[in-house]
């Protein structure tokens, strides 16, 4: 199976590209960590596979609608 074909089938099944799916899963994991632990946002961004806390915050905001710090307060 070609990469293009895989991506097309994946998107048909999930309405997301594989990259978007991974980002969404990372954000869901980050939400759990923000609710359960007293880790810093930087620590959570690293644990969820993001190299930059700024990029993590941008992606988190894109999928969650709020910043990680704001999400933690709720």
What would you say this structure looks like, in words?
- There is one protein chain.
- The chain is mostly helical and 74 residues long.
- It is 76% helix and 0% strand.
- The chain has 5 helices and no strands.
- Helix 2 crosses helix 4.
- The longest helix has 19 residues.
- The model has no long low-confidence stretch (mean pLDDT 94).
Helix content: over 70%
Give the tally of β-strands. Answer: 0
Radius of gyration: 14 Å
Strand content: under 5%
Structural class, please?
A: mainly alpha
Biggest beta sheet summary:
none
Number of helical stretches of at least 4 residues: 5
Instruction: Outline the low-pLDDT stretches.
Output: none
Reading the helices and strands in chain order gives HHHHH
Describe this structure in a few short sentences.
The chain is mainly α.
Task: List its traits.
mainly alpha; 5 helices; single chain
Write the layout of secondary structure elements.
Blueprint: H1 3-14, H2 18-36, H3 41-47, H4 53-64, H5 68-73
Helix pairs in contact: 2-4
């Amino acid at each position: 199976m070609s990469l293009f074909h895989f991506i097309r089938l994946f998107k048909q099944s999930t309405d997301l590209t594989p990259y978007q799916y991974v980002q969404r899963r990372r954000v869901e994991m980050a939400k759990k960590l923000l609710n359960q632990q007293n880790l810093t946002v930087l620590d959570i961004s690293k644990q969820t596979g993001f190299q930059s806390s700024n990029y993590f915050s941008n992606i988190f905001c894109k999928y969650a609608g709020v910043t990680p710090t704001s999400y933690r307060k709720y």
